[in-house]
């Protein structure tokens, strides 16, 4: 019986010591600068951590990019060779940070061939069903870039961001989207086609970062 009381007393003593240790640990604060006189200066460092959930101590993560580009750039060619294109095509930046269109290229679909953009009459002398087309594109009201006759399969329209290719973050609704205007010429077709894929336009989007050079 006496041994039991001793064991119980020992356990209680250990629990009390542990609780005191925990309390003391919880009350400990990070060491700081001590100001020892009136008019003295204390300095606090401001630190930055980018985290996935925006909380202190969260998992490290960079700003998330979210930019919407058109899924299709439709072209309609009339029986007289006239071409109509969409007037509301645009790129929208849904990211918090500023972005830019860094590069634009176009690749012809299978059995289709890129040629120089110009007056539609330049393709009137081509054989029907030649499957050739010229393409012109301008972003954000900037300078237009057009295909030429050098490469029938793939061409680069923009090699770097130019005026009109820059978008602010999503908080700035006046400048976080840019329009896409485009035009084309197409060789005649012997049969009606509907939504035939003739090419793919590739937009490379990048952060608009500070130039450290």
Mean model confidence by pLDDT: 89
Largest β-sheet summary: 6 strands, mixed
DSSP strand tally: 12
Q: How big a fraction of the residues is strand?
A: 25-35%
**Uncertain spans, ≥5 residues at pLDDT below 50?**
22-29
Helix content: 10-25%
Q: How big is the Rg?
A: 33 Å
Coarse morphology:
elongated
Order of helices and strands: HEEEEEEEEEEEE
Distance N terminus to C terminus?
83 Å
Please report the number of helical segments: 1
Helix-strand category: alpha+beta
Write up this protein.
It is a single chain. This protein is an alpha+beta fold and about 210 residues long. It has one helix and twelve strands, in the order H-E-E-E-E-E-E-E-E-E-E-E-E. The chain has one helix at about 1-25, and strands spanning about 65-70, 75, 85, 90-95, 100-110, 115, 130-140, 145, 155-160, 165, 175-185, 200-205. Strands 1, 4, 6, 7, 8 and 11 form a six-stranded mixed beta sheet that branches. Strands 5, 9, 10 and 12 form a four-stranded antiparallel beta sheet that branches. A two-stranded antiparallel sheet has the order 2-3. The longest helix is centred in the N-terminal third of the chain and has 26 residues, at about 1-25.
């Amino acid at each position: 019986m006496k041994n039991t009381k001793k064991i119980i007393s020992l356990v209680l003593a250990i629990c009390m010591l542990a609780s005191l240790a925990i309390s003391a640990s919880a009350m400990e604060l990070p060491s700081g600068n001590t100001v020892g006189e009136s008019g003295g200066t204390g300095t606090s460092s401001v630190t930055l951590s980018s985290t996935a959930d925006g909380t202190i101590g969260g998992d490290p993560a960079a700003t998330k990019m979210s930019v919407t580009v058109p899924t299709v750039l439709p072209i309609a060619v009339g029986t007289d060779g006239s071409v109509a294109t969409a007037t509301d095509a645009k790129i929208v930046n849904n990211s918090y940070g500023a972005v830019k269109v860094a590069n634009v290229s176009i690749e012809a679909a299978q059995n289709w061939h890129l040629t120089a953009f110009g007056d539609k009459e330049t393709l009137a002398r081509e054989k029907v069903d030649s499957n050739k087309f010229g393409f012109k594109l301008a972003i954000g009201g900037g300078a237009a870039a057009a295909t030429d006759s050098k490469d029938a399969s793939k061409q680069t329209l923009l090699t770097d961001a130019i005026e009109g290719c820059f978008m602010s973050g999503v908080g700035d609704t006046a400048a976080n989207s840019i329009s896409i205007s485009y035009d084309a010429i197409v060789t005649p077709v012997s049969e009606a086609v509907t939504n035939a894929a003739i090419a793919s336009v590739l937009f490379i989007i990048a952060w608009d970062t500070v130039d450290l050079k």
